[in-house]
Amino acid sequence: MDSGCSDIHKWTPVCSLPKGAQIFTNGLRVCSLPKGHVFANRRGGTEHTARRIKLIAAHYPPKQSYSSSSPPTQRSYVGEPDAEGSCRGGRGCSGVNKKLRMSARLAIPKTDGQFRAVRSDGCSIYETLLLRLETYGTLAAQTLSGLLSEALSEVFPLSLRLRYGYKLRVLELFVLSAQCLGSVRPKCRLSGCDEAARHWQAAGTEGSKGSSETTRPQNENRSPVAKPAENLSSLLQEQRLPLTHNSRNSKLRLGIGRSDGQLTASEAPRLRSEPKPISHSPLKLSLFGSEETSDIFSCTASTKSRHLPHARTSPRALLRLSLGAALASIQNQRRWRIQPRDSSSIFKCSTGIATICSLATACSTRCVALRTRATRLQVCSSGLCTGFLSAADGFFTEFLEIGLKDSQQGSIHDPVAAREYAHLLREVATKLQGDLLVMMRTYLEKPRTSVGWRGLVSDPDLSGSEDMGRGIALGRRVLLDINAAGLPAAVEFLDPMVAPYFEDLVAYGSIGARTVESPTHRALAAGLQMPIGFKNARSGDLQSAVNAAVASSAAQKRLSPDASGRLRLQQAQGNPDVHVILRGGEEGPNYGNASVTFAAQRLQAAGFGGSRVIVDCSHGNSGKHQEGQITACESVAEQVAAGSSVIGGFMIESFLEAGNQPLEPGVTKPSDLRYGCSVTDACLDFNATQDLLLELAAAVTARRERNTKPWREAAKS
Ligand SMILES: O=C[C@H](O)[C@H](O)COP(=O)(O)O
Ligand SMILES: C=C(OP(=O)(O)O)C(=O)O
């Protein structure tokens, strides 16, 4: 027994993996037995690391046999440990490795039910999570997407926002995540924001509990708020954790985006050497140099990358940027091109990937569920998966089958309550993920009709202090918490100068009724790497939202601060995932079938296909009374259940408690506010929200039953 695993007997097997497979993690002493049992002995790790292992274990129960004849609903691997449980230990598992930095392999279920150990070289800095959509059971996909979104949102709020050029059957998502998961905490270097430093340091000591507790120091002599631009670079810096990279022979190659939308694969230079210029030969992007993945996607070379100055600053920067995702379509053996819409914003939005994962999980749930029903459904499921990422139909078509639910609070004014709400919502979201993709609206900026509290970013103390530096840091912490809770986050983008601080943590955005006519907001939306919904005007006018969608789907340039705070000319490629949000208006509600149909006609006339209508059941559709949301939601449910192929999603304003409460900054004492109750729009309480979610999920299911045509034709009708 390897001395390093001497206390192996203290732990029960947590999961069975093929021979030689190990669990990669940090803070866990992991030994893999020759026959494939993996024991986990947690020593000095963080709670969520152990939870992560359990998460894997829950979905790979040992000793369950797999027979190729039964429909693959859950993959498990039969592995028998040695009687004596001797542990040869894998790389990095030797007792000598005191730093608990374990190399490992992740066992990935394959279509034949066996596992494929995905290689990572010893001491490799990355763990590869391979998400294979159609061949996994839901649980495995859930496990991996849960791991992925947790890892991403926690350590790497970065992801490559992708534009899909080809239909595909299987979503394979290769994401590289840092070795120091959960152990290296950002050292907040935010100038003028000592509080954020405390947040992150507290999070570091508290391990997985994270920390959105807002400890408001009374007499903190905070240094003056730094210039927002300076804040951004230090914010982003502290989010890019220092990576340790011991491997001498990592062949990691990076897909580096360029302004012309192509990717340049580059050899990740050794840490010790000076960064080599990014090579431009047509390269196969291979992960860890392992051949089996090298054909996953190939990059076409072209002119030198101009827009990533930091990519040349150091190998570390390059390594940090090593986030790539690959989709392979089995049907036509075609590889797809990654088409980042805007290289300067190529590294964004961990929840963009997390959203893809939750969509993938939802699709895989659908796939598994559908597969058990009939061949047609099998077609539908592949149609679903294909539809999911078919650029032709835009991001929203896939929601037709899943239904987007954007559960939202009027606005975020208390990070602690927001985090509590997120965890409650996550539970419901998981239950309903086969039908609804639930995102949490996290409005950090509040547009006002005239005056009033303008949101956490502007006034985090709810006192009129307008401490924007702290507001931005707190806003990021809230988004990280929501991501870490496993929910994609949705925001309204109000101040274009604030957008760069948050967009990498946001999976869905809206432009509000007060800014839908604004050319500046339309240009902002054109470069954002996530679906953007345009609210109709407060008057009720819909055309302004349709015009905004047209404008934002076109390529355009705009001035925007970059990570170093300098203004740069952003070349936005145009946002293909734009749509309209019916939020009612001065002329009354517009959630009814006639209004929805009218909106679809106006979008069609403007050249948009697919389903691109979301109904906001609040605001003008509820008369700003929370009960009014129920009526609106019920109408949406009726339309969806009747087979409407137009409604792609809906929004409600919801919080822990029903209603809202007055807040007059500088007059109302924050401590007097009722916990869990909105300080802006009236919200439904969580129970009422849950009932509505169940009703709407049932409507989505009913729609599927009704849709006699193949799924994708229905989406177009
Ligand atoms: O949801 C938020 C409100 O609709 C928005 O902030 C406007 O509120 P007001 O009209 O009270 O300013
Ligand atoms: C301000 C909001 O909506 P609208 O722009 O539709 O008023 C909101 O959703 O918080």
TrEMBL record:
<feature type="region of interest" description="Disordered">
    <location>
        <begin position="247"/>
        <end position="283"/>
    </location>
</feature>
<dbReference type="GO" id="GO:0008652">
    <property type="term" value="P:amino acid biosynthetic process"/>
</dbReference>
<keyword id="KW-0028">Amino-acid biosynthesis</keyword>
<feature type="compositionally biased region" description="Polar residues">
    <location>
        <begin position="208"/>
        <end position="222"/>
    </location>
</feature>
<keyword id="KW-0057">Aromatic amino acid biosynthesis</keyword>
<dbReference type="GO" id="GO:0005737">
    <property type="term" value="C:cytoplasm"/>
</dbReference>
<comment type="similarity">
    <text>Belongs to the class-I DAHP synthase family.</text>
</comment>
<feature type="region of interest" description="Disordered">
    <location>
        <begin position="61"/>
        <end position="90"/>
    </location>
</feature>
<feature type="region of interest" description="Disordered">
    <location>
        <begin position="201"/>
        <end position="227"/>
    </location>
</feature>
<feature type="domain" description="DAHP synthetase I/KDSA">
    <location>
        <begin position="411"/>
        <end position="691"/>
    </location>
</feature>
<comment type="pathway">
    <text>Metabolic intermediate biosynthesis; chorismate biosynthesis; chorismate from D-erythrose 4-phosphate and phosphoenolpyruvate: step 1/7.</text>
</comment>
<dbReference type="GO" id="GO:0009073">
    <property type="term" value="P:aromatic amino acid family biosynthetic process"/>
</dbReference>
<dbReference type="GO" id="GO:0003849">
    <property type="term" value="F:3-deoxy-7-phosphoheptulonate synthase activity"/>
</dbReference>
<comment type="function">
    <text>Stereospecific condensation of phosphoenolpyruvate (PEP) and D-erythrose-4-phosphate (E4P) giving rise to 3-deoxy-D-arabino-heptulosonate-7-phosphate (DAHP).</text>
</comment>
<dbReference type="Pfam" id="PF00793">
    <property type="entry name" value="DAHP_synth_1"/>
</dbReference>
<dbReference type="InterPro" id="IPR006219">
    <property type="entry name" value="DAHP_synth_1"/>
</dbReference>
<dbReference type="InterPro" id="IPR013785">
    <property type="entry name" value="Aldolase_TIM"/>
</dbReference>
<protein>
    <recommendedName>
        <fullName>3-deoxy-7-phosphoheptulonate synthase</fullName>
        <ecNumber>2.5.1.54</ecNumber>
    </recommendedName>
</protein>
<dbReference type="InterPro" id="IPR006218">
    <property type="entry name" value="DAHP1/KDSA"/>
</dbReference>
<feature type="compositionally biased region" description="Low complexity">
    <location>
        <begin position="61"/>
        <end position="77"/>
    </location>
</feature>
<keyword id="KW-0808">Transferase</keyword>
